[in-house]
């Protein structure tokens, strides 16, 4: 497999295995390593700012209060970003506590940045490195059960994200990802030219997921153990690219590479880059 035919390397939350997830240090390091795509997650603050964060609350595993105190797991959802203005969100630290699942991660002070800030910094830093402009995979963290509790309804949520993509002028290099089919259905109407990725983590057949969605997305993003030769063949027959996540072990990377995905999402882009 040549570099030209090698799948695009998606840095998961920047490079979660190496730097604090979804932070500017992680995105800068991923760009310096040479990822093709920055994968990140977005939620909404009380003042309708688009914040880069996997959970719509402050995770007890990696975040500390503005006073520097740890967050108890039992109360983490009370630190609800959708109920906090961004000025307060920015005072929390989510970089000094190493994620317990990633022993190679190098802690450093870091806050949850705005999507606008990430896009501006990534564009600037890629130019500084003299590398081609990076692509973006932006996951909208939405679920029907959380409407009005942890995030706005799909159309409102999507409008806020699309506005930031438009302001940054990166629409031609951006794919929107979501598990929530409602968001993708609205996105198809509001932004028909934007590539969409349906995320899947259950064993429901792909045919059923696509039938529920009601159209063929540009990308099918499955949890990597779900990827089989049969599924790969089916998606290719449908003209749908596939990008499995989150592939971290070299042996899993090699198995995945054999099925020739369009991309691979990993917490360890350095390991995948070494295989290329």
TrEMBL record:
Organism domain of life: Bacteria
Molecular functions per Gene Ontology: phosphoric diester hydrolase activity
Residue ranges of domain GP-PDE in the record: 7-276
PROSITE patterns: GP_PDE
Pfam families: GDPD (PF03009)
GO annotation (BP), single: lipid metabolic process
Protein name: Glycerophosphodiester phosphodiesterase
Organism: Hymenobacter wooponensis
């Amino acid at each position: 497999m040549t570099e030209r035919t090698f799948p695009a390397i998606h840095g998961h939350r920047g490079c979660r295995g190496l730097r604090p997830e979804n932070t500017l240090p992680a995105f800068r390091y991923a760009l310096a390593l040479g990822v093709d795509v920055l994968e990140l997650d977005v939620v909404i603050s009380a003042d309708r700012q688009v914040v880069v964060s996997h959970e719509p609350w402050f995770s007890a595993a990696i975040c500390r209060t503005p006073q520097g105190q740890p967050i108890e797991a039992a109360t983490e959802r009370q630190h609800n970003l959708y109920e906090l203005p961004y000025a307060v969100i920015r005072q929390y630290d989510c970089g000094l506590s190493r994620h317990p699942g990633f022993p190679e991660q190098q802690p450093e002070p870091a806050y949850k940045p705005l999507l606008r800030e990430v896009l501006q910094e990534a564009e600037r830093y890629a130019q500084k490195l003299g590398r081609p402009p990076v692509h973006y995979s932006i996951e909208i963290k939405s679920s029907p059960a959380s409407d009005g509790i942890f995030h706005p309804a799909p159309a409102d949520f999507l409008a806020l994200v699309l506005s930031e993509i438009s302001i940054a002028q990166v629409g031609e290099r951006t794919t929107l990802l979501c598990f929530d089919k409602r968001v993708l259905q609205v996105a198809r109407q509001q932004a028909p030219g934007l590539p969409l990725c349906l995320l899947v983590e259950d064993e429901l057949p792909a045919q059923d997921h696509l039938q529920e969605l009601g159209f063929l997305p540009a990308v099918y993003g499955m949890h990597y153990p779900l990827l089989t030769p049969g599924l790969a063949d089916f998606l290719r027959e449908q003209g749908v690219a596939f990008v499995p996540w989150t592939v971290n072990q070299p042996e899993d990377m090699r198995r995945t590479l054999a099925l020739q995905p369009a991309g691979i999402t990993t917490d360890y882009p350095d390991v995948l880059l070494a295989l290329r």
